[in-house]
Design goal:
The chain has 344 residues and is of the alpha/beta class. The chain is 38% helix and 23% strand. It has 11 helices and 12 strands. The protein has helices at residues 20-34, 47-50, 59-68, 87-94, 154-170, 190-201, 214-223, 235-248, 286-298, 302-318, 332-343, and strands spanning 9-14, 38-42, 70-73, 99-105, 117-123, 127-138, 141-151, 175-180, 208-213, 230-233, 256-260, 265-269. β11 and β12 form a beta hairpin. α1 (20-34) runs parallel beside α11 (332-343). It is globular and about 60 Å long. The structure holds 1,4-dihydronicotinamide adenine dinucleotide and magnesium ion. Magnesium ion is lined by residues 239, 243.
Length: 344
Amino acid sequence: MTQSHSTPIPATLIPGDGIGPEIVKSVVAVLAAVGAPFAWDVQKAGMSAVAESLDPLPEPTLVSIRRTGLALKGPLTTPVGGGFRSINVRLREEFKLYANVRPGQTLIPGGRYDNIDIVMVRENLEGLYVGFDHYIPIDNDPHGAAISSGVNTRAGSRRIARYAFEYAVRHGRKKVTIVHKANILKALTGIFLETALEIAKEYEGRVVVDERIVDACAMQLVLNPWQFDVILTTNLFGDILSDEIAGLVGGLGLAPGANIGEHAAIFEAVHGSAPDIAGKGIANPLALLSAAAMMLDHVNRLDLGNRVRQAIHEVLITDGIRTQDLGGKATTAEVTEALLKRVQ
Ligand code: NAI
Ligand code: MG
């Protein structure tokens, strides 16, 4: 995906619900100021679509992402009731977004742990999330037993492992830790471990490979998180450990996430639409801005991604300008202004 520096890159922009439009406006302004090459196609999803009697994930939005293969998405409120499926799950399935990537970095020192820098690469389509999950009646009890099956394929394991090692190489990371439970779930997570170790051989001398059983990894993350660099794991373990890592670095407030497929990639903040503060002008735009920095990396503009990350660091630490959720008093507009000064 090599792009010359001047070629505009079409990208879908979904402002989303709640605080979405406020933080998207801030992020778009900062991206414009650093000269990000995105040519935005603004599309609806979530409650803003439902308000116009559309599906929460309208067809034009899907068509746009199919065309651009790249999206920055504000948080979406999943309508409660009415049989709506989670929009995020629908997007993941529709575009086969097999890799969920969540960096966990200490951005504000003085918390429980300083200098943490871990990237979680989670398989996003297989494992125990495939939905083979049902009850079996026993005697008069319709829920007499519950059965769940997970599916991990060789191809799926290979694809996510390759993504993790390529990510490590591209971002100058030294180690990938494969996390599994192959001592008990011998087939289900054994195939994942075996396949990931095969892929690791191709990176010998470039990326160190390590492996951990998931329960030991959970403990090690608390005892000595600095030993981890990139963590590669299956869907459910990744779900659990990524929240653990977010907890180590002070919660979800600054956390970005990426969902990556072969033909599309969608970048977003980990937090939701924050209806309690929507419209008040006090939302923190930095999680979504960090997601936008990942999007710049993804289109091979690490230079711009790094500039955005540097500006975030300077605004938070040097300028000490922070929104309420980070213990400060600044508004979204004030944080945006400070960022714009820093990227000039
Ligand atoms: P939430 O993340 O929206 O809010 C939790 C708390 O964090 C609230 O007090 C909120 O004010 C605060 N917060 C979140 N983001 C903030 C920001 N950028 N700046 C300052 N404060 C912030 O989680 P909640 O309330 O559980 O969910 C609200 C809605 O968002 C629900 O409809 C949920 O389904 C949806 N959601 C969507 C996600 C997505 O689109 N990726 C992810 C998580 C939730
Ligand atoms: Mg989760």
